[in-house]
Structure formats: structure tokens, C-alpha cells
């Protein structure tokens, strides 16, 4: 195998091919100037992202520099240039070489090495792009988009990390707070927390999660809730107890972690808005409860036949996603009472969990039906980059645990036969928390052709123009209102969004910190910015 040091030559080649540059010096993109070099990293706690960053710094920074100004050769951190070629084309060029320029084929580089380098270039380019200043109160903000001009209106403030939204038939809006509450917004007034809901175990990604209203609510009154709970019967040790054990382990500076898991229940609201008639729909076996604080899922979606789909993350244990005897890292399909539909894909597979609809998922948190094709669109979080948008089909394998477009220790492949490719993926991370198609009449230019993607890491609301289960284009609707947790279409035809104040880099808070939030809606506007 050729020396890895030749990767510097590879980067020169990539630059030449991508940019097809003239002999004139490169001008940094508008709004970007030379800035300080980013610290090597690119991954949570190191790992392959840090390896790629260190490799770039050691072998290539002396030639290309560490910022958009470049060095002796032009910078690679140029979004306009990188947008011209997708990763697959870059890989083909790298593998085949370019003899006319003296660039040999790098067919001896592993798939992992090529992927790491491309990932680092794309991630750093995105991370260096200028970010809009956070707007804590979006009320009155005018957003001029490609097809509609809209205005943001404040629906309710005073929430704490709002997570899920669901409308009741009478127009009241249910909203969950990850901190453990279910609340009701009625004509702009936010209720006190609903009494009688179960106690949620709030830890990192866990807490009170999604909420959904049964399609026949007017007849049966059922509301579905997802939350994380402590393993039944577990008693945490006192704070002064001896060192952590496998049952209780410290994590990310948040104190002891205790075994927990996602639970799904349904219940009803009485005339006093109290939670009653609770029934358990899903509770995992005790041995699946884990001290990990990550990847609880959970998003609900009903189909036209009354089946309930729900998503479960793999709880940070990668092998779970490919194990059909394990419910984690899957999308599930059940009858509304939790029973198993007879036509589920793995009902007759020995040892398989019969509710599984699709598998090979990491942490899916968005699901929506295409109003034209009837297909299920899904979003899920990648490891370090590689966040995905998929069309999910019955019984298919979406690859997590074996392949990824992001970087993850132990995963060296970007694709493999028999595993579904995402329609698109995002590096750096978008943090896609929810998706929704617009089907109303308030925004005719968006009707039935627009999939909206709520982004937490990028603070973005994206609109994907779709047709025939493919993405034609995308645009950013906004990127300045904080973390977008959920998006739903209201009975009035407007779009409602759950927002959370920023966390993570630059805020002094951990990425999973709980922060104030609000619900806004987008309405048509004739004003100009």
C-alpha cells in the first residue's frame, strides 16, 4: 500500500478537480474571512473524526492552510465548490486518478480513509460558515423563501425544552416538555402541567418525548405518550456509595446514570384535563434497560388504516440495530392497542420481534407520509455527520451498525449491497428531529410537494422539494430561532414549530442541556423583508 503521506497529494488533486480552478488566487466566499484554525476533532470525544482532523493537519495543512484563506495551495473549505460534486463522484475521481495532471489513482486507499478525509473537508467547511445571530423572540420576523413569504408568530412562551406537538380536534395543542411534562396550549394560553402523567426519567436525551392523538380521538379519546423510565424495581445507591458499578456509571459529567428505557403508553384527558385510564403499549424487557443516556427515539405516526408506527433508537449500542431479536434501532408497526398486525414483515421469522417494520436505524426521530406516493419518509441522527433522510419500506435494512455516511468507530463502510442508501445525508450534522409534509391550502406553492425537516444541531428549518420519492432541491427557511424540535401542520393550515434555545458550542451549556423554549407558527405574509 502506498504511504498515507500521499494523502496530501490526494487533497491537491481533489482541490484541482472540484474547483477546476483558474490560475488566479482564490477569493474567500462572501461573508467568510480568514479565521482561527479549528481544533482537531470532528467527532464526539475523538475517534475517527479526530483521526481525520489530525491527518489533515499533519499532511495537508502546510500546503492548503487551515482556513478559507488557504496556504501555498487554495483552501478546500469552500462551500460553493464542494456543493458542485457529491461524495460518490469525489470517491470515483480519487480512485481513478487523473493521469493528465500527473495524479495517480489512489485505488489502494481504504474506503474508510477516503471517507474520513472527505468527511473532514465537508464538516470543517460547514462548521466555518457564518452563523446567523440567535433571535430569542421570532414574533414578527418575515421570511422570504423561494416559493412563499411567511411571517413568524408566537403561539406560546415559557416552555422548557418542548419536544412533541399534537393537535386535539377542538384546536387545543398538546405539547410535551422533555423535563417531564405534558401541557396544553389553548388559544395562546399555556396550561399548568397535566396531572397524573407518569414520572419521566430525565437524563441527556431522555425524558418526556413524543405525543400523538388517535385519528379517531373524537370517538375513543386516546392520546399516546412516550417517555423514558427507570428500570422497574431499580433502587439507586446513595450518593456516598462506593465507586460506580456496571449498573450505575457516570456519564458526561451528569452524575450517576441509572438503567432506563423508552416506554409507550396511552391514556385519556378527563374534563379537568387530568391524565386517566392509562394503558401500557410498549415496555421493553428488563435486560434491555441501559445506563446510556442516548438514543431513546421516539416519534409516532399513524397510517390510514389505524396502525401506529413508532421509532426506537439503538440506545448507543450499535449492534442492536442489526439484531432482529432486539427491538432497539428499529421502526415498529402495531395495532392501536399494541397488538401485532398479522401482515408485519417479520411475524414468521423465528426469534424476530414481530412488531419490527424496518431495521438498521440509529436514532430515528422523524416520520411522515408522502401525500402523493403514500411512502413513509424518515429522518435519523448520524454519528459524527451522516444524518439521513430515507424512504422507509417494509422489511428493509437501513444499514446502521454496518454502514454509515458519518464517522463511527468500528464502521468502515459507506455502503453495502442489501442495505438501503439514504436519499440525502448531512455533514456537518443537522440533527434532524422531525419531518412533516405540508398538505394544506394556506401555502399553495408548498402543498403536497414540500417536506419540512426540523434541525437541532444546525438550528435550521429545511424545505425539501420532492417528487416521486426523490429530492429535487432544498432550501433553508430559517436558521436563527434556535433548536427546532418538532413541526406539525395545524387544523388551521399553518405550520407550528417547537423551538428550544441554543445549547452546545458557544453557549457554555452541554449539547443536551435543557433550555427555555416556545411554540411559534408560520403564516402567509405579503410584507417584504
- Spatial extent as radius of gyration: 24 Å
Anisotropy-based shape: globular
What is the CATH T-level topology of the largest domain? Neuraminidase
Q: Which ranges are low-confidence, i.e. pLDDT below 50, for 5 or more consecutive residues? A: 1-45, 245-254
Which structural class best describes the helix and strand composition? alpha+beta
Strand order of the largest sheet: 1-2-27-26-25
**Biggest sheet, in brief?**
5 strands, antiparallel
- CATH architecture classification name of the largest domain: 6 Propeller
Mean pLDDT: 86
Strand content is: 25-35%
Number of domains: 2
Word description of this protein:
The chain has helices at residues 7-19, 48-59, 61-64, 79-82, 87-96, 111-128, 217-220, and strands at residues 142-144, 149-160, 162-167, 173-177, 181-186, 189-190, 208-213, 223-230, 249-250, 256-257, 260-269, 275-283, 300-302, 308-312, 330-334, 356-359, 364-369, 376-380, 387-392, 424-426, 432-437, 450-455, 461-467, 470-478, 483-489, 495-500, 516-524. It has 529 residues and is an alpha+beta fold. It folds into two domains: 4-128, Cytochrome Bc1 Complex, Chain D, domain 2; 142-234 and 247-524, TolB, C-terminal domain (Neuraminidase, 6 Propeller). The chain has a five-stranded antiparallel beta sheet with strand order 1-2-27-26-25, with no helix packed on it. It has a four-stranded antiparallel beta sheet with strand order 3-4-5-6, with no helix packed on it. A four-stranded antiparallel beta sheet has the order 7-8-11-12, with no helix packed on it. Helix 2 packs across helix 6. The N and C termini lie far apart (57 Å).
Amino acid at each position: 500500500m502506498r504511504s498515507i503521506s500521499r494523502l496530501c497529494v490526494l487533497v491537491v488533486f481533489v482541490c484541482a478537480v472540484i474547483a477546476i480552478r483558474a490560475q488566479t488566487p482564490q477569493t474567500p466566499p462572501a461573508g467568510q474571512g480568514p479565521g482561527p484554525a479549528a481544533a482537531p476533532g470532528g467527532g464526539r470525544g475523538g475517534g475517527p473524526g479526530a483521526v481525520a482532523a489530525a491527518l489533515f493537519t499533519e499532511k495537508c495543512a502546510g500546503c492548503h492552510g487551515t482556513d478559507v484563506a488557504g496556504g501555498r495551495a487554495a483552501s478546500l473549505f469552500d462551500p460553493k465548490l464542494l456543493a458542485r460534486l457529491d461524495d460518490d463522484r469525489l470517491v470515483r475521481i480519487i480512485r481513478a486518478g487523473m493521469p493528465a495532471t500527473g495524479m495517480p489513482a489512489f485505488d489502494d486507499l481504504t474506503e474508510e480513509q477516503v471517507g474520513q478525509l472527505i468527511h473532514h473537508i465537508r464538516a470543517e467547511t460547514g462548521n466555518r460558515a457564518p452563523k446567523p445571530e440567535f433571535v430569542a423572540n421570532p414574533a414578527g420576523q418575515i421570511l422570504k423563501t423561494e416559493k412563499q413569504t411567511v411571517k413568524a408568530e408566537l403561539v406560546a412562551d415559557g416552555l422548557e425544552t418542548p419536544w412533541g406537538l399534537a393537535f386535539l380536534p377542538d384546536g387545543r395543542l398538546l405539547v410535551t416538555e422533555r423535563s417531564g411534562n405534558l401541557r396544553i396550549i389553548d388559544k395562546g394560553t399555556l396550561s399548568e402541567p397535566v396531572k397524573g402523567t407518569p414520572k419521566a426519567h430525565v437524563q441527556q436525551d431522555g425524558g418526556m418525548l413524543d405525543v400523538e392523538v388517535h385519528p379517531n380521538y373524537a370517538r375513543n379519546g386516546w392520546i399516546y405518550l412516550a417517555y423514558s423510565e427507570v428500570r422497574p424495581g431499580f433502587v439507586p445507591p446513595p450518593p456516598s456509595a462506593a465507586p460506580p458499578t456496571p449498573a450505575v456509571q457516570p456519564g458526561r459529567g451528569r452524575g450517576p446514570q441509572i438503567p432506563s428505557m423508552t416506554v409507550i403508553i396511552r391514556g385519556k384527558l378527563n374534563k379537568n384535563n387530568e391524565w386517566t385510564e392509562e394503558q401500557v403499549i410498549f415496555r421493553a424487557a428488563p435486560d434491555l434497560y441501559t445506563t446510556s443516556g442516548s438514543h431513546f427515539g421516539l416519534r409516532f405516526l399513524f397510517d390510514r388504516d389505524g396502525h401506529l408506527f413508532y421509532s426506537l433508537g439503538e440506545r448507543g449500542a450499535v449492534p442492536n440495530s442489526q439484531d432482529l431479536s432486539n427491538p432497539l434501532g428499529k421502526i415498529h408497526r402495531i395495532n392501536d392497542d399494541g397488538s401485532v398486525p398479522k401482515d408485519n414483515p417479520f411475524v414468521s421469522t423465528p426469534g424476530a420481534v414481530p412488531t419490527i417494520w424496518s431495521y438498521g436505524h440509529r436514532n430515528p426521530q422523524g416520520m411522515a407520509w408522502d401525500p402523493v406516493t403514500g411512502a413513509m419518509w424518515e429522518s435519523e441522527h448520524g454519528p459524527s455527520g451522516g444524518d439521513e433522510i430515507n424512504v422507509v419500506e417494509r422489511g428493509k435494512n437501513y444499514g446502521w451498525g454496518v454502514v454509515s455516511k458519518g464517522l463511527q468507530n468500528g464502521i468502515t463502510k459507506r455502503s453495502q449491497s442489501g442495505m438501503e442508501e439514504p436519499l440525502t445525508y448531512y455533514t456537518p450534522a443537522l440533527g434532524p428531529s422531525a419531518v412533516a409534509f405540508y398538505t394544506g391550502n394556506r401555502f399553495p406553492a408548498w402543498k403536497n410537494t414540500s417536506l419540512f425537516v426540523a434541525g437541532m444541531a444546525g438550528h435550521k428549518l429545511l424545505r425539501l422539494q420532492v417528487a416521486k420519492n426523490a429530492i429535487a432541491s432544498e432550501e433553508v427557511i430559517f436558521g436563527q430561532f434556535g433548536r427546532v424540535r418538532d413541526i406539525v401542520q395545524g387544523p388551521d393550515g399553518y405550520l407550528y414549530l417547537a423551538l428550544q434555545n441554543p445549547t452546545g458550542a458557544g453557549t457554555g451549556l452541554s449539547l443536551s442541556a435543557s433550555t427555555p423554549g416556545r411554540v411559534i407558527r408560520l403564516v402567509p405574509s405579503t410584507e417584504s423583508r
